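Hey all, quick one. A colleague (J.T.) asked me to put the N-(5'-phosphopyridoxyl)-D-alanine job into the tracker so the inputs and the structure tokens live in one place instead of scattered across chat threads. No bug as far as I know, just bookkeeping. Sequence used:
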Amino acid sequence: MSVHPVILTQSKFLHRDSLKFPFEERGLQFGDGIYEVIRIYAGKYYLLEEHVDRLFRSIEAIKIKLPLTKKELTEQLLELLEKNSMDGDGKVYLQVTRGSAPRDHVFPENVDANIYAYVQDLPRNLAKLENGVSVITLQDIRWDYCYIKSLNLLPNVLAKQEAKENGCYEAILHKNGLVTEGSSSNVYLVKDGTIYTHPATKNILHGCVRMAVERFTKELDIPLIEEAFTLEDIADADELFLTSSTSEVLPIIKVNQDFVQDGKPGKITRLLQQAYEKDANLTKQTVSAHN
Ligand code: PDD
């Protein structure tokens, strides 16, 4: 994945090679910050407003003051794509930390937040979207404020690595048998035509694609119930899928070595994939259920 050369930092556009962080940076030393990952298709952001809104909810929750309005940040993010002549599929990683200051747990006074954003190429993973992925299940060992898109991702990183070591794409997390979400995605179960997913409480990240999926289900008249399902429910599921800005709407076909039904992506998942492609204006319609 290639990184584009122009980086947005402290409202300025710099070449990535000139970006230097002091080691006394609160994001590095305490994970004292938050982030966003925003999808880009054909050089245009998808769900940008939702991401900017969530970024402001996250900074408010951890009491970081940003010297920017939502509108100003949005304009700068748009300019970042222009400055990089970005016209393909990719993503922007945007990070805000409490700033650079001598190491001390208490908040530093009169220190500006550090903000930076950069663009990476990210082609759509058509084979996975078509065929689906395998997952493992793991205990959710994270903290109580998962709705904040915090930089503290150690439990998520460990879970994703364990998934990889088991030949899987994602780890589905559960709190004592109740499924919360994936290590970097939201998770859904379909049973008898109804979609179930964990409610948007403090225990999960309120995914931007999750919000879009809620909208699609209303348009398509598919019932969606915000109620956590259990590990036992999975054994009996008609379909499972996950969503995120990088994964889109992705079928889950195997859980801990057991196939979901016949091991093929389900009908409702396909409908939501189509709705996603339409909403994001994706010209290359790729999912076979379109035929
Ligand atoms: N992660 N849940 C968690 C824990 C996540 O980290 C993410 C996204 C999601 C889905 O959110 P959204 O639909 O807004 O992308 C749910 C990003 C992609 C990441 O950390 O790379």
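Adding what we noticed when we looked at it: The chain has eight helices and 15 strands. The CA atoms of residues 179 and 232 lie 10 Å apart.
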